[in-house]
Design goal:
This protein is of the alpha/beta class. It has twelve helices and twelve strands.
Length: 313
């Protein structure tokens, strides 16, 4: 399979490395610092899935540099705030399917403004990764399989299962589900409750769950999301916030207790965060349906303030 990874960051590097190792033809587009190292030294994966080193078929700074224009699969792994720009660039390529492997709400919705649903695959990615100072791609944690699907039922189940099997057999645990949109919202709930507080307080998930103050705040964030989802007609796996909170604190937190959110690393390195696709998106959706979301709004503003303070430092 000929594959393009658009966004050779932490998650993109893991997809690129494992898919290439499995024998696929893999190209990637990324930022200058990353691609220069990958060109020179190869792409090295470390962490909980073992050590692997591969040479991609090509790494480039932009679509214009690509030696070919046609792909079987494009995997979009850019930050949510770069989605629209990336989709504009992808308009110049021919591909069978575009798999959106990103955080937060709105990426699939934006993609539908550019491409028909028959080309779009939504992914819920729940493994964590980071790029080390040596520009090695480290898998830090894995909460579940990558789940892929098409929320509109516009792609045959057989095709989606074959793509899932391609990724799974490459070494990234992956499965198909017709409920992929519910899985995405599962991750939105999880990320909204943990990422911003972890970034603001510069601590890990276990510490957040162990303090009464942050435990209350996380519960309130979750409750507001349930209210917004109900008003928007978005189906969740959980009947009510109480049911989800029990699962969140008893099942989800323990295996990832030592994990620090990627939002914290973004803040520390002076980068923009994805808060607008997480808690900020909840605020925006709440306004659309007349649901008040004061906790999510305060959290969003605090993260944006912290971004500005880091940029000035």
């Amino acid at each position: 399979m000929r594959i393009l990874i658009f966004g050779l960051g932490a998650i993109g590097g893991i997809f690129a490395g494992f898919l290439k190792k499995a024998g696929n033809e893999v190209y990637a587009i990324g930022r200058r610092r990353i691609i220069s190292t990958v060109r020179e030294k190869g792409l090295k994966i470390v962490g909980i899935w073992g050590e692997h080193k591969v040479n991609l078929n090509g790494v480039y700074k932009s679509v214009d540099e690509l030696p070919l224009r046609e792909f079987d699969l494009v995997i979009l792994t850019v930050k949510s705030y770069d989605t629209t720009e990336a989709l504009n660039h992808l308009m110049g390529l021919r591909f069978k399917y575009l798999l959106l492997a990103q955080n937060g709400y709105g990426n699939y919705e934006k993609a539908k403004e550019f491409f028909p649903s028959e080309k779009l695959i939504l992914a819920m990615v729940i493994f964590g990764a980071r790029i080390t100072p040596k520009v090695e791609f480290e898998v830090t944690v894995c909460g579940d399989d990558v789940v892929i699907g098409n929320p509109d039922g516009a792609i045959e189940e057989k095709t989606l299962k074959e793509i899932a099997q391609t990724v799974n057999s490459a070494g990234i645990p992956t499965r198909y589900s017709s409920d992929v949109y519910k899985y995405l919202w599962d991750k939105i709930l999880y990320n909204c409750a943990l990422n911003p507080l972890g970034a603001l307080l510069e601590t890990n998930y276990g510490t957040l769950a162990g303090m009464e103050e942050t435990k209350i705040l996380m519960g309130q964030i979750i409750e507001e999301i349930f209210k917004v989802a109900k008003a928007k007609g978005i189906e969740l796996f959980w009947k009510n916030p109480e049911e989800y909170r029990r699962f969140f604190f008893e099942k989800l937190i323990p295996p990832t207790a030592d994990h620090y959110p990627s939002m914290l690393w973004d803040v520390k390195s002076g980068k923009r965060t994805e808060i607008d696709a997480l808690n900020g998106a909840i605020v925006g959706l709440g306004k659309e349906v007349g649901v008040s979301t004061p906790i999510n709004e305060v959290i969003t503003k605090l993260v944006k303030a912290k971004e500005k303070l880091r940029l000035k430092a």
